[in-house]
TrEMBL record:
Keywords recorded for this protein, A-Z: Nucleus, Protein transport, Transport
Alphabetized Gene3D superfamilies for the sequence: 3.10.450.50
UniProt domain NTF2: residue ranges: 50-168
Name under which the protein is recorded: NTF2-related export protein
Keyword Metal-binding (UniProt): no
InterPro entries cross-referenced by the UniProt entry: NTF2, NTF2-like_dom_sf, NTF2_dom, Nuclear_transport_factor_2_euk
GO biological process: nucleocytoplasmic transport; protein transport
Length: 174
């Protein structure tokens, strides 16, 4: 909804014309801000919904179909996994396939849209997930807390990872 349409929906034409110009300008700016806030709320709600769907798909893929994981990454994506970096979806795939089998449990999830001015108008999201990961099969192996940050962007009708930073949460030795 445009600011002008918003104002017209709140005031009839006769009333609007009786309002002094400076106040019409203020009302116009207020209406514009209200619309911008509603649009931001919508983007944040969309970001949260996408984050839930995306992380569910991602962790199912890494835990059960790791050989297909590269399809989630852009060709030029960056992965930093516990301090080890890989660039390009083929290198990322190779690195992730070398990791032991895993089972992720997400306990916390947050997402927000990235300002369009920062990403040339491309709809992009920052997603943060935290939880625990069990490495190994069955009762053997170990479980550790993790934190992962994704920067994803829309490519056609799919979400692709631009940047992925995974970190096991281990105590700092003093």
């Amino acid at each position: 909804m445009t600011a002008l349409r918003f104002l017209k929906s709140r005031f009839d034409v006769k009333t609007t014309l009786q309002i002094p110009f400076c106040f019409r300008h203020i009302l116009f700016n207020l209406a514009t801000n209200m619309i911008a806030k509603e649009q931001l709320k919508d983007k944040i709600r969309d970001a949260c919904n996408v984050a839930e769907e995306f992380t569910k798909l991602y962790y199912e893929s890494i835990d059960r179909m790791r050989h297909q994981l590269s399809r989630h990454y852009m060709d030029t994506a960056l992965l930093v996994w516990n301090g080890t970096g890989s660039v390009g979806k083929d290198q990322i795939q190779k690195f992730l396939e070398a990791l032991p089998t895993s089972q992720h449990t997400v306990a916390s999830l947050d997402s927000q849209p990235v300002l369009e001015e920062a990403v040339s108008g491309q709809f992009t999201l920052l997603i943060q997930a935290a939880g625990s990961v069990h490495f190994g099969t069955g009762g053997s192996g170990e479980t550790k807390p993790f934190h992962q940050t994704f920067l994803i962007t829309a490519q056609g009708d799919k979400w692709k990872i631009v940047s992925d930073c995974f970190r096991l949460q281990e105590a700092i030795e003093s």
